[in-house]
Automatic annotation (TrEMBL):
This is Dehydrogenase. InterPro entries: Gfo/Idh/MocA-like_OxRdtase_N (IPR000683), Gfo/Idh/MocA_Oxidoreductases (IPR051450), GFO_IDH_MocA-like_dom (IPR055170), NAD(P)-bd_dom_sf (IPR036291). GO terms for molecular function: nucleotide binding. Residues 12-126 form the Gfo/Idh/MocA-like oxidoreductase N-terminal domain. It holds the Pfam family GFO_IDH_MocA. Residues 135-244 form the GFO/IDH/MocA-like oxidoreductase domain.
């Protein structure tokens, strides 16, 4: 811990899981202002030495709870999110749960109910919301800089991560794109059609192509895979005035404007098309998204106004990802229009 928060209170935090993502959480928690990392939970111990040297590693969640913590970060495998989250909720401990919220819609619903019924602060680690390029993009869309939005296209591909064994590419990676698309546009999914393949010999799918539609008619395309040697993280939003391209690997945001070019060619005068205009790459302050995510959640636990990804928002992403898999397995378009008021989540 370094320093204290504006409230003068120091929060006691724990971390569950020190795998590939957990070690990054450990690093941030160890230096987070106003937070003391009191223990790490991992039944396997910490053979890689990911936990800070002065923080004890304990085998069970109950050992962490016994130390008295205000909140915990759940960074264990997705299949364990539900039992670990329910144990924390029962103990009255707030939780930041890595994405996806749970391995199934039913499990996600049980987690939402467990934390909400006890009035506990809980959030989901959809880290792309804190990417500087996407935060700038969202602000510009809200300001109407693109005019009417026509299409959102995301590409998220790269080599297979050996650490992932319990879920496929839809729940592990495509949930990023589902969440960020709804968040940057302020719209929800109405329907999805998807195809998946499995080429790596694993139980789950390792490539998915999705075509979807948002509730306002915006077209959505997601291409996600673990089969490419090229690592790519791209979000392109096209609209009436041009398109934004966000590269979330570099946190760059570029705008390509529709040019205003007059033509004397009579046959083209009636065509409402586009032409190449100015290109602008914005200067953006680039803070580490994980650091920002932790600061926002810390503030929420302290009772300060803070923008976190709520469990209900995380549940909605799990619902849409389930619809993607249903479409892929059935070969048909699946209606996934929200049954709730999107503004309420």
């Amino acid at each position: 811990m370094s320093g204290t928060t504006a409230t003068g209170r120091t929060l006691r935090a724990g971390l569950i899981g020190v795998g590939a993502m957990g070690r990054h959480h450990a690093r941030v928690l160890a230096g987070l202002d106003g937070v003391e990392l009191v223990a790490v939970v991992d039944p396997a111990g910490d053979p890689a030495g990911s936990a800070p040297h002065d923080v004890p590693v304990v085998p069970a969640v109950s050992d962490l709870v016994a130390k008295g913590v205000d909140y915990a970060v759940i960074a264990c495998p997705t299949a364990l999110h539900e039992p670990v989250g329910l144990e924390l909720a029962e103990a009255g401990v707030c939780a930041l749960i890595e994405k996806p919220l749970a391995h199934s819609v039913e499990a996600a619903v049980r987690l939402v109910d467990a934390f909400e019924s006890r009035g506990l602060v809980a959030g989901v680690g959809h880290i792309e919301r804190f990417n500087p390029a996407l935060q700038s993009l969202r602000q510009r869309l809200e300001a109407g800089e693109l005019g009417e939005v026509f299409q959102v296209v995301t590409r998220r591909q790269g080599p297979f991560p050996a650490r992932i064994a319990d879920v496929g590419v839809v729940k592990d990676l495509a949930t990023h794109d589902i969440d960020l698309t709804g968040w940057v546009t302020g719209r929800d999914y109405a329907s999805v059609a998807a195809r998946v393949v499995s080429k790596s010999g694993r139980l789950h799918e390792d490539m998915v192509a999705v075509v979807g539609q948002l509730t306002d008619g915006t077209m959505v395309n997601h291409l996600v895979n673990w089969l490419s040697p090229l690592k790519e993280r791209s979000t392109v939003v096209t609209g009436d005035r041009g398109c934004f391209v966000a590269d979330t690997l570099t946190a760059d945001l570029t705008f390509y404007a529709n040019g205003a070019v007059n033509t004397e060619w009579e046959a083209l005068r009636a065509f409402r098309g586009v032409s190449e205009g100015d290109m602008i790459r914005y200067a953006i302050q680039k803070r580490e998204p994980l650091q920002v995510e932790h600061e926002r959640f810390r503030d929420a636990v302290l009772g300060l106004e803070s923008d976190i990804v709520t469990l209900r928002q995380g549940l909605r992403t799990v619902e849409v990802s389930a619809a993607v898999l249903e479409s892929a397995h059935s070969g048909r378009t699946v209606d996934c229009a929200p049954a709730h008021d999107a503004a309420a989540v």
